[in-house]
Amino acid sequence: MNKTTDIEHQGVVIRIEAGTAVVRIVQNSACAACHAKGACSAADKAEKDITVPLPEGRAIEVGQEVWLVGRSSKGLQAVLYAYIFPLVLLMAVLLLVQYYMKSETIAAAAAVASLIPYYGMLYLFRKRLTKKFLFFINIDKK
Length: 142
Prior knowledge:
about 140 residues
């Protein structure tokens, strides 16, 4: 795998079902790797379960350590959908409504309300997006 274009997480297979494996990864914040993490309360760690397709021709067992690999370009697309597009929508609605209505309260309410249909659409298309933003299992350690 190409290190510059891949996102990699080490995880453990916790369940295998219907052609997929559920892999638990431990996601650390940048603070968790800091040498002074014990002196501050910013160290953050979270476990996440990721469902990935089983690799063909390779046997995987529950409890096995594996690497999850995804393309960093897909990660950038996810950031666009989750943060950048909603921010642009929020600011555009805020500025337009404020310009025409001359009320900051109505503009703020309309801007926040504009996010409801946006995230609703993401929710409706979640199956399509799940197929687009896939991780894959790499059994071999580097």
